[in-house]
Design a protein that fits this description.
Blueprint: H1 9-22, H2 24-54, H3 69-90, H4 92-99, H5 103-139, H6 151-176, H7 179-196, H8 202-211, H9 213-218, H10 234-258
Protein name: ABC transporter permease
Keywords: Membrane, Transmembrane, Transmembrane helix
Transmembrane segments: 28-49, 61-85, 106-131, 151-173, 180-200, 235-256
């Protein structure tokens, strides 16, 4: 409106931070992310430690150190989706864009808040899972030190990957605007299609699988791939993942600017 001063980015960021933490689902999602990520990693390492030491699993011990990521990524997708779709569900999005007409600024603030929270939560979860799971592996003589190849990268990579997944889900939520539908699409693309694609024939099928978001981005969060799946090099895959997320977010922002809240 003429004569009305538009809020700056710092004000919008603060507002989004307050909204993020006042929604009850935020704490539940982050608690579940930690419980699944750290808890299941510890549990699986405990259950498999003896077999790993005997070489009976066919897997490297390193593949188990971030095993819980398979499930914690579900909560990252859920949280990223809810950051947007919960506002559509309650009608708060209309108030948000009325207060901040520059919609790109709204999306940017949501992305910053979500990225920071999920990065920290992802790293904390990965470190807790490593400490718990590696304790059992160490008892059997197959533990890994932080200085071993890929360990630190995977712990930090968990935060990077979960933050990227959150933004991926946020963009999907902006496009679809319905919680169940957006979450279903996100999970299908990351988990279902990503695994099914490995069944495609030939070299082209392998490359399709490697380039799908979950497979490309998840490599940076693994010390070693589970089941020996073909993946891109960790940082190469993460670069592809970031490009895919950025492209989807750009489309979402353009759509968000052009339609009713």
């Amino acid at each position: 409106m003429p004569g009305v001063r538009q809020p700056g980015f710092a004000q919008v960021l603060h507002a989004e931070w307050v909204k993020f933490w006042t929604v009850r689902s935020t704490r539940w999602s982050l608690g579940l992310l930690f419980a699944l990520g750290a808890g299941l990693t510890t549990l699986v390492c405990w259950a498999a430690a003896t077999d790993l030491a005997a070489g009976d699993t066919g897997e490297a011990p390193a593949a188990f150190l971030t095993w819980g990521l398979l499930f914690s990524q579900l909560t990252a997708l859920a949280l990223g989706t809810l950051v947007v779709t919960s506002e559509y569900g309650t009608g708060m999005m209309r108030a948000t864009v009325t207060a901040v007409p520059r919609r790109g600024r709204v999306v940017a603030a949501k992305v910053v808040v979500l990225t920071v929270v999920l990065f920290v939560a992802g790293v904390v979860t990965a470190v807790a899972g490593y400490l718990g799971g590696n304790w059992f592996l160490d008892r059997e003589g197959v533990g890994l030190a932080l200085s071993d190849d890929g360990v630190l990268r995977a712990l930090l990579g968990n935060g990077l990957y979960l933050a990227g997944l959150g933004v991926f889900a946020l963009a999907t939520g902006l496009l679809i605007r319905h919680t169940a539908a957006a979450l279903t699409v996100g999970m299908a693309l990351v988990l279902v299609v990503g695994n099914v694609a490995y069944a495609l024939p030939g070299t082209w099928g392998e490359w399709v699988a490697k380039l799908l978001p979950g497979n490309a981005g998840g490599a940076v969060a693994q010390v070693a791939p589970f089941n020996g799946g073909a993946v891109l090099a960790p940082w190469t895959g993460f670069g592809v993942f970031v490009a895919e997320v950025a492209a989807l977010l750009l489309v979402a922002v353009l759509v968000f600017r052009r339609r009713d809240a």
